[in-house]
Amino acid sequence: MAIIEVEIEINATVDKIWDVVSDIDNEPKFWKGTKQVKNLSKDGNIINREVIIAFRDQKCLQQVTLYPKEKIEAKFTKGILGGEKIISLIPKNEKTILHTKWDIKLTGMMNMFTGMIKKHIKSGTEQAMKSIKEEIER
Questions:
Q1: How many domains does the chain have?
Q2: pLDDT per residue over 89-133, tens digit each?
Q3: Category of 125 on φ-ψ map: left (φ > 0), alpha (ψ -120 to 50) or beta
Q4: CA separation for the pair 138, 30 (Å, rounded)
Q5: Are 8 and 122 contacting, i.e. CB atoms less than 8 angstroms apart?
Q6: Contacting residues for 18 by C-beta, under 8 A, at least 6 apart
Q7: Which pTM does this prediction carry?
Q8: 62-95 pLDDT per residue, tens
Q9: pLDDT of residue 54
Q10: Where are the alpha helices (DSSP H) in the chain?
Q11: Is pLDDT above 90 for 57?
């Protein structure tokens, strides 16, 4: 498994950041590794969806659980990626820390390349969080 953690401080309240990051249909706008999302079902705060990732245009299935104004858990349930991505919002005075943690691996025969994609995922995460910060602080 590859563990990747990135965080950024945003000059905004949890409420304001939550409005942006919880709009998971908008994920490809910020996360360049996510090319397309299609919601398959929704039950309360749990969304099952199909995601096309930039890595070889692979289709993955995810179960996303929204914990309002606290965190978003996206578990990869089928496809080339296994594991999860957790985005957390941590209040810090008048600001908020946006924290992303990946615990993932490539599945099947591709597992041996997990280490190689780690730097790409970290770089993409840093870029996504910078874009989210810029959008919110405008």
A1: 1
A2: 999 999 999 999 999 998 888 888 778 888 889 999 999 999 999
A3: alpha
A4: 15
A5: no
A6: 68, 69, 89
A7: 0.94
A8: 999 999 999 999 999 999 999 999 999 999 999 9
A9: 86
A10: 14-21, 27-30, 114-137
A11: no
How many CB atoms neighbour CB 121 within 10 A?
20
Residues, the chain, total?
138
CA–CA dist 117, 91 (Å, integer): 31
The domain in which residue 115 lies consists of 2-137
Q: Which two tokens stand for residue 54?
A: 């930039």
First to last CA, the chain: 36
With vertex at residue 132, the alpha carbon angle to CA 130 and CA 137, rounded to the nearest 5 degrees, is: 95
Residue with tokens 């910060």: 133
Tell me the CATH number at 107. Answer: 3.30.530.20
Residues sharing a CB contact under 8 Å with residue 86, sequence separation 6 or more, in sequence order: 71, 72, 73, 74, 100, 101, 103
Helices 14-21 and 114-137, packing angle to 10 deg: 120
CA distances, 18 to each of 12, 104, 129 (Å): 10, 24, 13
How far, in Å, CA of 21 to CA of 132, rounded? Answer: 8
